[in-house]
Design goal:
By secondary structure, this protein is mainly α. It has a domain of 76 residues. Helices cover 50% and strands 0% of the residues. About 18% of the residues have low confidence.
């Protein structure tokens, strides 16, 4: 049985690899609830790192293409308050979803 590789399967596979990689290497983060000031000032994190570290603490991470960008935007903005995400972290996470979810050509405002 051959596995057919198309754009959607490739995107899912790459997203899964990124989540696994970030999960293994991102567990030592000092950035968390109430710990925003502990992060080195010069160090920036990507949206996928923030997503896996912050969201993965309480949630089973889903494939980015499981929901539309609009649905992710609602969820991320809701969790911004609950998980004390900074505005910059929220933007990074949404930028990650914008790049990861197929078919997005422009982000709704």
């Amino acid at each position: 049985m051959a596995i057919k590789i198309n754009g959607k399967n490739l995107a899912r596979g790459l997203s899964l690899l990124v989540v696994i990689f970030a999960g293994f290497f991102g567990c030592g983060s000092t950035h968390g609830r109430g710990g925003a000031g502990l992060l080195d000032k010069g160090k920036t994190r990507s949206g996928v790192e923030i997503w896996t570290q912050q969201c993965g603490r309480c949630h089973n991470l889903r494939s980015p293409d499981e929901f539309s960008y609009a649905q992710w935007e609602v969820a991320v903005n809701h969790m911004r308050v609950r998980a004390t995400l900074t505005a910059a972290d929220t933007r990074e996470i949404l930028d990650f979803f914008k790049a990861a979810v197929p078919g997005i050509t422009a982000v709704p405002k």
